[in-house]
Specification:
The chain is of the alpha/beta class. The chain is 32% helix and 15% strand.
Length: 294
C-alpha cells in the first residue's frame, strides 16, 4: 500500500479512530429549549417538485420512534396499501449501486412484485399485474469495487439509460451513484454528474412530468481496520460526492435531490453501507412523498 507512509499509517488505528468517547455520567446534561420551534409535518409544504434549494438550511430532520421527521417537506409514512396506491400504473427505474438495489428488493416484498425474467446481480425486473406496477433495477457502469464476476454486457451508463427511457408522469427514475465512486478522482465524478444532468434535461423535454430523483451518499461501516477501506471508501470521500450532488443539482427544477446524509449520521443502529430495514423504509417514505404527496 503506497498511498500513505509508515508514519501516516499509525493515524488509521486506535486511538485515532474507532474509539469510544468517555462520558462522565455524574455530570448532569442540561437541555435548553430550541431558539426556533421545530416545524411539525402540518407546518411543512408538500414534497413534490425540486426541494434541493433547502438542502443547506440547517439539519435535514431528526429521528422519532423509528420515523424520520424531515425538516424540509412533509414526508408521509407509507403503509403497504399506500405504497400500492402510490405506484399503481407506474414504472419505476432504479439505476445505480446496491444501496438502491435495496429499494428494489424492499418494493418487491411490499407490493409484491413477481420476477419478469431471470434476474442477475446487475439487472432485475419485476411487476405486479393487480396494481399495474413494474420495477427495473440496473447496476451502473464501472467503476465497480467488487471482486464478483459482473455480466459486463448488462452494465449501462446512467446517461444512456436516461436517453433510453420513454418517460412521462407515470415514470419514476431514481439514480444512486456514490458508493463505488469514492476511490475515483472527484473531477471524474463531477464530469459524470454533469453528463447525467444534461440527459435528465433531454428526458424532461421529450417527456414532461417524469419523476427524476438522485440520492446522496450515506455513512457506512469501517470494520476490520482495513487501511484500504479508510483510504478509498471513507465517509469523508462519500461526503465529498454528496456535496457535489447537492451543488450540481441544487437549483435544477428537473430533478429532486433525496438527501439521506443526516438520516444515517444520527441513526441509532450500526453504520452500514446497506442500512437496516427501518432506514430503507424511511428512505422510501421520502421518495414516495415526492411522487404521491397526498
Amino acid at each position: 500500500m503506497g498511498l500513505v507512509s509508515q508514519e501516516e499509517k499509525k493515524f488509521f488505528k486506535k486511538p485515532y479512530l474507532e474509539e469510544e468517547l468517555e462520558a462522565n455520567l455524574s455530570v448532569p446534561i442540561h437541555v435548553h429549549p430550541p431558539a426556533v420551534r421545530m416545524p411539525s409535518p402540518a407546518d411543512l409544504k408538500a414534497c413534490p417538485g425540486n426541494e434541493s434549494s433547502s438542502l443547506t438550511q440547517g439539519t435535514q430532520g431528526h429521528w422519532s420512534r423509528g420515523v424520520w421527521k424531515s425538516s424540509i417537506c412533509n414526508v408521509r409514512v407509507f403503509k403497504t396499501t399506500d405504497v400500492q396506491r402510490c405506484l399503481a400504473n407506474k414504472v419505476v427505474y432504479l439505476h445505480g449501486d446496491s444501496t438502491v438495489r435495496q429499494w428494489y428488493e424492499r418494493l418487491q416484498a411490499i407490493l409484491p412484485l413477481q420476477n419478469i425474467n431471470q434476474n442477475t446481480v446487475v439487472l432485475k425486473s419485476a411487476s405486479n399485474t393487480e396494481w399495474n406496477v413494474a420495477a427495473h433495477f440496473r447496476f451502473h457502469h464501472v467503476p465497480i469495487e467488487k471482486q464478483l464476476p459482473y455480466p459486463f454486457f448488462n452494465l449501462s451508463y446512467a446517461a444512456d439509460q436516461l436517453d433510453a427511457i420513454q418517460g412521462g408522469p407515470n415514470t419514476v427514475v431514481v439514480l444512486s451513484l456514490w458508493a463505488h465512486f469514492t476511490a475515483e478522482p472527484l473531477d471524474m465524478t463531477r464530469s459524470r454528474l454533469h453528463a447525467i444532468r444534461h440527459a435528465i434535461h433531454r428526458l424532461q423535454r421529450r417527456a414532461p412530468g417524469t419523476h427524476v430523483f438522485i440520492r446522496t451518499g450515506t455513512t457506512r461501516e469501517h470494520t476490520g481496520n482495513a487501511l484500504i477501506h479508510y483510504l478509498l471508501g471513507s465517509d469523508w470521500l462519500a461526503y465529498q460526492i454528496t456535496e457535489e450532488i447537492r451543488e450540481i443539482f441544487r437549483e435544477d427544477p428537473d430533478v429532486v435531490v433525496l438527501d439521506f446524509w443526516d438520516m444515517t449520521v444520527c441513526q441509532w443502529g450500526r453504520d452500514n453501507v446497506h442500512p437496516d430495514q427501518t432506514v430503507v423504509d424511511n428512505e422510501l417514505n421520502m421518495l414516495l412523498s415526492h411522487v404521491c404527496p397526498k
